[in-house]
Design a protein that fits this description.
5-stranded mixed β-sheet, Beta-carbonic Anhydrase, Chain A
Length: 208
């Protein structure tokens, strides 16, 4: 890729926006009021705004390898804090995608250096659900199911946070688990039962 072309593309993009609305960037600079916090994978093939069909300002986005919500990851925790407490989002979405390189790497036994501690989070998901996963004979189907289970577990990690628990009590925030199917381009709602998960985790993770 020619890096200079990116700046040409930017100039064209700016002009296109101004041709439609001369105040576009003035209005954009006045602040943001997103309704959704989107936590997704850093995979270059999957962009949050494009797959959801939303405009700038409508989604606050955090991305990392395999859409993880690790409780020791200050970046993810800071994003949740800011989005929930300050931006007052109404929805938190964790979105994984089939054929995720991070999930695939976690299913293998290779030593990947600095990636090892990150991938252990996904391997922990496999360990938690190993009976179900080991019962799936087809490798591709097992891989796809781990993608789904990883999304589910990251939703649980979101629900564990004090910010989300407080927002649920005060304004009924909701958490959603989705998977993007790269083969079809469709978003799949895993229909995470937010209230049931909340009830199950509150005995241990309730924060007043």
């Amino acid at each position: 890729m020619d890096i200079k072309q990116i700046f040409k593309n930017n100039q064209n993009w700016v002009q296109d926006k101004l041709d439609i609305d001369s105040n576009y960037f003035k209005n954009l600079s006045e602040g943001q009021n997103p309704d959704i916090l989107y936590i997704g994978c850093s995979d270059s093939r999957v962009t949050a705004e494009e797959l959801m069909g939303v405009s700038p300002g409508e989604a606050f986005v955090h991305r990392n390898i395999a859409n993880m919500v690790a409780n020791t990851d200050l970046s993810a925790m800071s994003v949740i804090d800011y989005a929930v407490l300050h931006l007052k989002v109404s929805h938190v979405v964790v979105c994984g995608h089939y054929y995720c390189g991070g999930v695939k790497a976690a299913m293998e036994s290779a030593d990947l250096g600095i990636l090892n501690p990150w991938l252990r989070n996904i391997r922990d998901v496999y360990r938690t659900h190993r009976i179900e996963l080991n019962g799936i004979e087809d490798n591709e189907q097992r891989y796809k199911r781990l993608v789904e289970l990883n999304v589910q577990e990251q939703c649980i990690n979101v629900i564990k946070t004090a910010e989300v628990q407080r927002a649920y009590r005060e304004r009924n925030i909701t958490v959603h688990g989705w998977v993007f199917d790269i083969h079809s381009g469709k978003l799949i709602d895993l229909k995470i039962d937010f209230n049931k998960i909340l009830e199950n985790v509150m005995e241990i993770y309730r924060l007043e």
